Structure formats: C-alpha cells, structure tokens
Amino acid sequence: MSASYRLVVVALRPLLMSLTRRDWRGAEQLRVGGSLDHGIVVAVNHLSWFDPLVVSHFLVDNGRLPRFLAKDVMFRVPVVGRIVRGAGQIPVHRGTAEAAEALTSAVAAARAGECVLVYPEGTLTRSPGLWPMTGKSGAVRIALESGAPLVPVAQWGAHQVMRPYVKELRLFPRKTMRVWAGPPLDLDDLRGHPASDAELVDATERLMSAITGLLEQIRGEVAPTPRFAWPLLPPAGSGQGRMTT
C-alpha cells in the first residue's frame, strides 16, 4: 500500500465506521480459490459521488485495495489529484488518443493480482428509479484480456448521504450502506478466442443483469424493463429522447 493510499484509508475508515451503518454480504466472492492473491475485476452500479468511498470501504475491509478507473479530470484537482495519483488509480482520458491506455493499465493491474474496480455504466445512473442503466464493455474486456474473474457488486444507500448530482452531504441520521457481491460472471464461452462486438454487448448485458439482480434483492423490488439507456436516443424527426434496450 502506497503512502497516499495508507493516508486515505487511515483518515477515512474511522469516519465511515462512525457515520454509517453497514450491511455487507458476499465477501467470499472477492477471493479466488480462497485466496486474495489473484487479481479480480469488480463491476458495481453507480448511484452517488459518495459511493466510491462506500465501495472502497467494503473492499478494503475485506482485504482488497481497489484501483479505480477514474475520469482524468480528478487527477487535475489540487490535493485530490496528488492523492488519487499516489494511490495508483487509473485515469480515463475519454475521447482522446490516450483512452486505450486505461484499459491497458487495468489489464496489467488485474494480471498482477490487484483488484480493478469499474463502473460499467460510465456515469451516475440517470434511471428515475436509480436502477442500473445499460453498461459499457470495459469491465468485460478487462476480465477477458487479463483472465481475472469478473465479480458483480450492487450497492444501495450512498444516495441517501449524497443524492445523485448533488454535492450536499446528509449524514444524519446514520444511513445503512448495503454492498453485496455476487458470484463471478461466467465468461467461459468467450475465452480462448477474440470476442466479437456482439459477444461483448451480450456479456455486458449479462453483467448488468447480475448487478441488477443483486440490487433487486437488496431493495426487495423488481427492476423495470427495458433497461434505461444513456444517452437517450431520439426517434427520427421527433426531437424527443427515448429509452433503448
């Protein structure tokens, strides 16, 4: 653990322990053959700017130091950027020639035995009910290229502390942070050959279904269908957005 990472853990863990309650399940899914020495890819739904702390708390307390794929803008924020960079987080330069570097770095980290954390939606959910949206294929690609297990994780509660796209904290009364990990996604049908775009889309939908299934258990509700898609695609000539599958 780097000095920056240790500083963050030492500073934030006691605060999170005192300010939140926890309902954590599935920690055994973070082990490979009972060991923490093998790399894994963790894919989780994204509710709030507060949930990276919640998910990190779950992972660190269960023996995994997460390496996030984070937007490059975070690395340019004074103080925060230095901490994030020192903690070994992976910058994502969207829409640039450097965009592929994030995937390469993530694959290398997973092969080296690390825990790579990905938000497959790529942004906070825009679903009106805060359900997982359609996902991007990055998590599946990292798992396939590295050979690491892909572990779906659902979390619920961070949005009660910090609502989506709102920076105001609401710490009291204490909220319960629920983080549940499920069994690794079965990707055996895609291993041993280059996956086609259609296969990656299908595997990503299987991943989002696994995350959604865990969240349904947490919430005791059934997610609506079709899955909310972002950005919204307007029908020809309508000028209106719509949901896509």
From TrEMBL:
A GO BP term here is:
phosphatidic acid biosynthetic process
Q: Does the keyword DNA damage apply?
A: no
What are the protein's UniProt keywords?
Acyltransferase, Transferase
Q: Which CDD domains match?
A: LPLAT_AGPAT-like
Instruction: List the SUPFAM superfamilies hit by this protein, alphabetically.
Output: Glycerol-3-phosphate (1)-acyltransferase (SSF69593)
Which GO molecular function annotations are given, in alphabetical order? 1-acylglycerol-3-phosphate O-acyltransferase activity
Question: Which SMART domains does its entry note?
Answer: PlsC (SM00563)
Task: Name the chain's protein.
Answer: Unannotated protein
Query: Taking every annotated instance into account, which residue ranges of this chain make up the domain Phospholipid/glycerol acyltransferase?
Result: 40-158
The organism's lineage is: unclassified sequences, metagenomes, ecological metagenomes
Name the GO cellular-component terms.
Answer: plasma membrane
Organism of derivation: freshwater metagenome
Transmembrane recorded as keyword: no
